[in-house]
Recover the amino acids of this structure.
């Protein structure tokens, strides 16, 4: 179906008299233009969250349109058609007063999320609107990815300190990927995720600018520090000209499920979901050119084996994508994921697994070893037994 999200696309269509069969109008204010729909055959037209006068609502329904009215009283837009930007999520935040975060859209939506059940199943209408919202985020994410056919994700712990060498290493690695034309995607949060989004934003720039930014950030090392977000905004202000001169896109995929930790301020686009399961599955699936796993905890381990499962069964378009684990001792001894991963991969997709401490080796591995087809025969019950 054809979707229309702005009046500039709709009005010429109405003026042309073209049929509106299989057309969706989404989130439009039609109170001044509803009369242009009157008297037409509107069978097959769907209006999602559009504003109409009471008279026009009756007219378009009688003409055959299917109408889902706007849903009010929410801090978020259920009929959303775009990804979030840091500017939207943090509108009203002032670095000199970190508590202004509590009045931002990001904080208000999280408070609403908790007040309406949080991770528990919410009331029916709230569940409905959250799912509408997440569907819109998925559509907007798919639209963005149509312009980026090489996506590399960088995963790692949200508790990674800005003051550590590994934080700077992750940022540098992300910058190297972005400089080669990859879209760098992360979970959109703090720690290793922030490092990667920051590094991608400063791709191709003098390393001194990155080191200066990290020094500023390190004054508030983790997201539990009062000035964590404030320091990020100071970096954005200090390097505003540099960031604006070459706005490298970089993606975050955070979730209100973990809303106690704000998204980072360096991803240019945030696909922020309510449903963490959609977020986790989507983030691992979109990174078809590989994932780098920096040191992390339970969430990162989950992502390693979620990625391994997709590779094992070829569930993402039948592809096997590279997996690079940064930190040999960490992933072999501290959290020994490597032995199980190696045993699982075997000869079928072991060629797409790398464990190393060398940033350059990871870069070369993912550049030289993109996704490949999994050699597997298609099978179905009906095809095997009932044909």
């Amino acid at each position: 179906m054809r979707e229309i999200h702005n009046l500039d696309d709709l009005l010429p269509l109405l003026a042309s008299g073209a049929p509106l069969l299989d057309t969706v109008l989404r989130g439009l204010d039609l109170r001044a233009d509803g009369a242009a729909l009157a008297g037409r055959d509107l069978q097959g037209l769907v209006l999602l969250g559009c504003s109409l006068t009471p008279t026009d609502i009756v007219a378009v329904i009688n003409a055959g349109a299917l109408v889902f009215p706007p849903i009010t009283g929410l801090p978020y837009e259920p009929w959303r058609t775009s990804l979030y930007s840091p500017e939207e999520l943090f509108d009203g935040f002032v670095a000199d007063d970190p508590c202004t975060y509590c009045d931002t859209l990001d904080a208000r939506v999280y408070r609403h999320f908790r007040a309406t059940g949080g991770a528990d199943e919410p009331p029916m209408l709230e569940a409905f609107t959250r799912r509408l919202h997440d569907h819109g985020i998925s559509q907007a994410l798919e639209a963005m990815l149509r312009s980026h056919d090489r996506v590399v994700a960088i995963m790692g712990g949200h508790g990674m300190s800005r003051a550590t060498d590994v934080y700077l290493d992750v940022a540098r690695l992300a910058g190297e990927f972005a400089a080669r034309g990859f879209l760098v995607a992360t979970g959109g949060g703090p720690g290793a995720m922030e490092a990667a989004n920051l590094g991608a934003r400063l791709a191709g720039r003098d390393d001194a600018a990155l080191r200066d930014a990290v020094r500023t950030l390190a004054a508030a090392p983790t997201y539990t520090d009062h000035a964590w977000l404030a320091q990020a905004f100071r970096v954005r202000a200090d390097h505003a000209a540099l960031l604006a001169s070459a706005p490298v896109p970089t993606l975050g995929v955070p979730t209100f499920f973990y809303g106690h930790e704000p998204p980072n301020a360096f991803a240019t686009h945030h696909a922020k979901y309510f449903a963490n399961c959609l977020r986790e599955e989507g983030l691992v699936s979109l990174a078809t050119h590989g994932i780098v796993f920096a040191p992390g905890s339970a969430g990162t381990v989950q992502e390693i084996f979620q990625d391994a499962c997709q590779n094992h069964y070829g569930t993402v378009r039948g592809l096997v994508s590279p997996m690079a684990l940064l930190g040999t001792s960490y992933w072999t001894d501290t959290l020994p994921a490597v032995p199980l991963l190696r045993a699982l991969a075997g000869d079928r997709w072991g060629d797409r697994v790398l464990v190393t401490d060398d940033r350059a080796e990871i870069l070369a591995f993912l550049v030289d070893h993109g996704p490949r087809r999994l050699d597997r025969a298609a099978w179905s019950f009906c095809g095997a037994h009932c044909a």
Summary: The longest helix spans residues 124-145. The chain is about 45% helix and 10% strand. The chain has a mean pLDDT of 94. The chain has two domains: 2-68, 140-373.
